[in-house]
Structures are given as structure tokens and as C-alpha cells.
Amino acid sequence: MMTRMNMTVRHAADRGMADHGWLKSAHTFSFANYHDPEHMQYGPLRVINDDEVAGGGGFPPHQHQDAEIFSYVLEGSLEHKDSLGNGSTVSAGGVQYMSAGSGVVHSEFNPSADERVRFLQVWLLPSERGATPRYETMVVNAEDKAGKLKLFLSPDGRDGSMATRAQALVHAATLNGEQRIEHDLGVHEKAWLQVAAGTLRVNDVLLVKGDGVAIDGGGTLVLEGGEQAEVLLFEM
Questions:
Q1: d(Cα 210, Cα 96) in Å, to the nearest integer?
Q2: How far apart are CA 45 and CA 29, in angstroms?
Q3: CA gyration radius for the chain?
Q4: 85 Cβ neighbours under 8 A, 6+ residues apart
Q5: Which residues contact 100 (CB under 8 A, 6 or more apart)?
Q6: What are the strands, taking DSSP E only, across 92-211?
Q7: Do residues 216 and 189 make contact, with C-beta atoms less than 8 angstroms apart?
Q8: Which residue among 14, 103, 205, 232 is buried most deeply as judged by most CB within 10 Å?
Q9: For residue range 161-209, what is the model confidence (pLDDT) as tens digits?
């Protein structure tokens, strides 16, 4: 029932901003030097960083533990290497997923010398600690998310998604023109929608690139009016 639903918009301009030259980042939740006690996390969703890394730039090797981390690439390419021996490069539409578990060291770099890479880096809190680390990639094809939600991360790896240790379903979608998505949240009392690109309306609320919206109480979401829109939807 849509009457139970409560939507709270986190406007793009209100996020924490960081500019390190080689890296420009917008933080939806508290991260690094940005601290806001009103925006620490939402359910198991702990980090959404909208990162732009200049050509040749990147994050040198650093450790993570007990975090479910994925990078969703929007523009350019992103290279990953880790202490488990994994290495991969994914381009727009690609997802790099790492379950840090008991601990892993990894690096992320822009392999291009002159083109930027833009991606959303997301951290989810795991439902178990100290697990064996693992790493996986997948490509969310353009046709699979055009005007519909494509599940790419879930606790049980359903429908061809990658299995995560977080209690969340994560979908991607693009909308343009007359495309419309109606989605029942079912048993999920919490959800978060993040606008990665473009503009759209969600239950008649206009959202623009960088906006996020916290959704409480379950109900039905209606996504429409997209103008080159791309979104991630988290059901929790």
C-alpha cells in the first residue's frame, strides 16, 4: 500500500564533497573527513560515494575487513587488483564486487592515461563477520536494465545475480522517454534509490543526478519521466 510509504530525499547538493585533484568524490553518508551524525548509514547501506578518478589516478593498496563492497562503473574503465590474486578491468555497466570478510588488500586504478572513470562505490554491512574473502565481477547489459530493474546482487544469488553477505537486493535500471517501472517492495520495509545519472520521477517526486531517497514502510514504487536516467535500487 502506497499510503504507508514515507520518502525522504537526500539532495545531491547536500552530500559531503571532497576534491583531491586526481579524485573528486561526493559522499551520501559519512566517510573519511566528512562526518554528519544525521547521515551515517541507512539499514545495512553504509557508503555511497560518487567518485571521479582522473586519467592515471587511483587508490593504492589498502585493507578492508567485514564489508561488502561494490563499484558500479558509469563512465570509463576501472582496474582492480587484490591480495587474493584477483585482477580485472571493467567498463561502463560493469560491477566489481568484493566481500572483504576476514581481510583483503586491494587497489583500484583508472587504466586510462587521459580519460576519467566515474563510478559509484558502495559499502554494505555484512550479516556475518570474519568470513572468507571473495571477489566477483559481472556486466549489467544495457538491454537488461532498459526500462526495467535488473537484479545484480542478492543474499542468495537468485536470478543470475552475484551472492552477497549483506541483507540487501541491489538492482540497476535506466529510464528514458515513456519507459515506466512499477515495483512492489513486498516484504522489504526499507529501500534506498540512488540516481546515478539524468532525471526521473519516483512516485511523482522529481529526482536529479546525485539525489538519493530513503523509503520507509514498504509499498509500491513508480519510476517514470526519465531523461537519460540511471538508478540503483536497494531493497533491505
A1: 21
A2: 9
A3: 17
A4: none
A5: 64, 65, 66, 67, 68, 69, 133
A6: 94-99, 104-109, 117-124, 134-139, 150-154, 162-163, 169-175, 181-184, 190-202, 205-208
A7: yes
A8: 232
A9: 999 999 999 999 999 999 999 999 998 989 999 999 999 999 999 999 9
Grid cell in block for residue 108: 583500484
Contacts of 70 by beta carbon, 8 Å cutoff, 6+ apart: 95, 96, 97, 98, 121, 122, 153, 170
Instruction: Check: CB of residue 70 under 8 Å from CB of residue 96.
Output: yes
**In angstroms, what CA-CA distances link 170 with 15, 84, 87, 202?**
21, 25, 23, 17
Q: Which residues contact 38 (CB under 8 A, 6 or more apart)?
A: none
Integer angstrom CA distances of residue 149 from 90, 92, 137, 180, 196: 21, 17, 19, 10, 14
48 DSSP β-pair partners = 122
Alpha helices in 180-227 (DSSP H): none
Among the listed residues 96, 102, 89, the one whose alpha carbon sits nearest the alpha carbon of residue 122: 96
How far apart (Å, rounded) are the C-alpha atoms in residues 161 and 51?
A: 24
Statement: residue 66 has pLDDT above 80: yes
Supply the pTM of this predicted model: 0.96
